[in-house]
Amino acid sequence: QVQLVESGGGLVQAGGSLRLSCAASGRTFSRSAMGWFRQAPGKEREFVAAITWSGGSPHYADSVKGRFTTSRDNAKNTLYLQMNSLKPEDAAVYYCAASSLAYNSGSSSPNLYNFWGQGTQVTVSS
Prior knowledge:
The chain is mainly β. It is built from no helices and eleven strands.
């Protein structure tokens, strides 16, 4: 079991930055692939970024590539999402997710993640 709590969301002007954190509890965090997803009002949940259990091979949605960076600190049981050059279209509720599935090495499919946080709101003003 993994419990996830996101923090760091808020209101920022376009072009600004935010750093989201996802604090995890549970013994399996360090062996879990982790992902970030977001959902804007009226839209489906979409993939943002994912990272393997070891912190290697992070990958990103095309819409955030070059602007967002995900990382993890297994010693602190924490996942991060650094968001730079934010755009109004980045506004959404951001969720972190963990996967206990051994074959998930950082998938972009939300169906391969079985633990989810409650989400944190990111608002970007133009």
